[in-house]
Amino acid sequence: MSAQDEIWILGIHMTKFGKHPDKDLVDLGVEAIQGALADGGVTMADVGVLAAGNLRGGGGIGQQLQKQVGQTGIPVYNVANACATGATALRTAIMAVKAGEVDVGLAVGVEKLAGAGLLAGADRDEDSNVWEPSGRYGAVAEVDGRIGTATMPGVFAQIGMEYGHRYGGANFELFAKISEKNHFHSTLNPLAAYTKAMSADEIMNDVMIAYPNTRPMCSANCDGAAAAVVLNGAKLKTLSKQQQRRAVKVSASILTTDPWEEACQVLPNVNTLTRNAANQAYEQAGVGPEDLDLVELHDCFATAELVHYDNLMLCEEGGAADFFNSGVTWRDGRLPVNVSGGLQSKGHPIAATGIANIWEVCQHLRDEGKQRQIEGAKVGLAHVIGLGSACGVHILEKAA
Amino acid sequence: MANQVPLVDYLVLGDQPHLVANECTQCGARYFDRRNACAGCFGTEFRSVGVATEGEVRAFTIVSMAAPGIEVPFVSAVVDCDGTSVRANVINTPPDPDHVSLGMKVRLATYPMGDDENGTVAVGFGFEPAT
Ligand SMILES: [Zn+2]
Q1: Which residues of chain B does A139 touch, with a Cβ-Cβ cutoff of 8 Å?
Q2: Are B70 and A128 inside 8 Å of each other by CB?
Q3: Which helix (H) or strand (E) is A181 found in, with range?
Q4: Is A29 within 8 Å of A61 (Cβ atoms)?
Q5: Nearest 5 degrees, angle CA A187-CA A193-CA A195?
Q6: Global pTM?
């Protein structure tokens, strides 16, 4: 592979995740962009393309951000891809650099979600006065709650339970312990929305949302943003030794959707598209799961983390429960997963998530992880999934 | 008996209520919604087929928090009806982990949802324990 074809992250930044009542969407996005540019030692004048992700802000976030950080006339791609929006923005910038259209690209994801509550499933209106079929199911009344659930905690609860049914070993307590791990990890992450350790007992006795997911087992709605500057290897070689030393190699950048399978339109299948993305990523990077030093995966719910151990092939097929129970995914284990605290405690400002998880991996690969540094980390994987579905997997490597 | 209307058009009422699916004539993929084409093989021809009324709970959750207006708790499940997956509530049993379990045998059941100003009764469905 020539230097022109290599993709590197030059600068990356995430804001504190949590409540930012005094900052709007643009403030948060600007903070992330300016942080990433400063981290990379470049300015908007160096950037050839901007990909901007936001899901719930009403559109056109890229241009709104340009108006504050620099209107240089470059193309903007506003992207939306559910919870994979951030990874999609990054992937868009990477594709532009890979295509040779620009040397330097910028990706940003930003969301204001604090206090948003359940994010799917509309309020149920009064039934109409006359039963009148409408929509693709010819429904005479709203079906959420009458024909299953549209809420994310419930959908992902079923996904975890389905895994338990197929392979055994997964129960309420196991899912709570996964959450306990991530909440424990969050105590070392000052940028996380919640940084309080919780025992599995406390987690199981907290407010039930959708069995087996209690409140602390659900990703936390919050505000936040993250941004990354990417460039090709040829451009990187023209920059300072310091910039080259801190740059992180993107050895795989993959985005997939869910291929049709029986049942996938009944309960979203988050497994196959993740497995496909992982397979493609390992092949593109020329590494295997055994080479990974840390993983940030999409634990939107505790029940989701379990199935992704298997989907990312971190364990043998069907072995996710045993894999977790062996302790390897704790930060002192062989393959730490979600040392950031994961979405359950770090928080999940949707469009920021798919860049913030890459920021986390970069901190460790740069030996800048401070109190939560995973010593000697050289290769990491970041995974997100958005229902609907889209899956982003990036494999990152320390500069040689 | 008052006029009845099913909650969704893939629920067939009558003496033996059952669900019907749109089955792709080319590859056999089954769907419950109105189709433009098959997501599996891109075919555009479908036939209506009956779905088994007995099945097994393959996944479930007990929803305790939902959007305003939706009664909780309720059990949402994926039921494997002889190879066709169906989304439905598990009904006619208490919504708790002692009464709902993975692999439990269930059968289709219908219930009246109330009548409209014309006196027409909407009929919903769910799956109830089969034993
Ligand atoms: Zn077909």
Answers
A1: 7-9
A2: no
A3: helix A172-186
A4: yes
A5: 15
A6: 0.96
Domains in chain B, ordered, with CATH? 4-129 (2.40.50)
Q: Name residue A254's amino acid.
A: I
Helix (H) or strand (E) segment spanning residue A183 = helix A172-186
Q: Domains in chain A: how many in total?
A: 2
Tell whether A232 and A160 lie within a shared domain: no
Residue A146 lies in a domain: no
Structural contact between residues A56 and A110, judged by C-beta atoms closer than 8 angstroms: no
Determine the Cα–Cα distance for residues A140 and B125; give it in Å rounded to an integer: 13
Question: B112 in helix, strand or coil?
Answer: strand
What are the pLDDT digits (tens) for B81-109?
999 999 999 999 999 999 999 999 999 99
Question: Quick one: tokens of A108?
Answer: 């940003």
How far apart are alpha carbons A273 and A399 in whole angstroms? 29
Helix (H) or strand (E) holding A61: helix A61-69
Q: Which domain holds residue A71?
A: 7-116+222-249
pLDDT in tens, A21-60: 999 999 999 999 999 999 999 999 999 999 999 999 988 9
Helix and strand numbers, DSSP H then E, in chain B? 0, 10
Question: Would A169 be classed as within a structural domain?
Answer: yes
- Give residues with Cβ within 8 angstroms of A380, minimum separation 6: A292, A293, A294, A295, A296, A361, A364, A365, A395, A396, A397
Q: What CATH number did the domain enclosing A282 receive? A: 3.40.47.10
Same domain, A244 and A287: no
Please answer whether residues A50 and A75 qualify as being in contact, where contact means their C-beta atoms are separated by less than 8 angstroms.
Answer: yes
Shared domain check, A391 and A368: yes
Contact map slice: B 67-126 vs A, CB within 8 A: 67-72, 74, 76-78, 83-89, 97, 102-103, 113-114, 116-118, 120, 122, 124-125
